[in-house]
Amino acid sequence: METHSREPHLLRAAALNGTDLSHVGLIGRSPAFRAATHLIQRLAEANVAVLVLGETGTGKELAARAIHYLGTRRDFPFIPINCGAIPDTLVESELFGHVRGAFTDARDTQPGLVVQAHEGTLFLDEVDALSIKAQIALLRFLQDGSFRPIGARTSSQSKARVIAATNADLEERVQSGAFRRDLFFRLSVVPVNLPPLREREGDVRLLAEAFLHTLANEDAHGPRRMDPTSLLRLERYTWPGNVRELANVIQRAFLLAEGDCLTLTADALGPAEEHGAPAGAEELALPGSYRQARKQVIADFERRFVSRALAESGGNVSLAAKRVGKERRSFGRLLKKHGIARSDYSLVP
Question: Does domain 7-193 have CATH number 3.40.50.1970?
Answer without folding.
Answer: no
